[in-house]
Write a structure and sequence with these properties.
With 148 residues, the chain is of the alpha+beta class. The protein contains three helices and nine strands. Its EC number is 1.8.4.12.
Amino acid sequence: MLRWSDILIFAKYSNPEPPRRLHKNEAEWAALLTPAQYRVLRQQATEPPYRNAYCRSYEPGLYLCAGCATPLFDSTTKYHAISGWPSFTQPLSKSAICYAFDEGHHMQRIEARCNCCGGHLGHVFPDGPAPGGLRYCINSESLVRVDE
């Protein structure tokens, strides 16, 4: 189980090695993704709160990266955080997500990215439920839910 101290160490020193890496140029990403997905995954945009596909969805399944289909989260770790975006307590595996310090918008946050394709997913915060205390606040546009 990952804890906030693990996330800080990954962001500061080195992220876990991903299971694979996917590299595409911006034209290839633009052709592969919808315009909304491209804005979120490649341009670090944030979708509007509460008006997104997975905010209020709790169906069982796996959540994959919309850019490269890497499994990121299991629905069993999804919870109602009242944040306006899908929230998860843990990634599917330690190597699924990579972390970076983000000081944009006059805030200090930890950005969560797909560790395979580098796509922006959202942010992780230390205010989640026990036992891990993590809240992965993720844009729906960066995810695709599939049945297990």
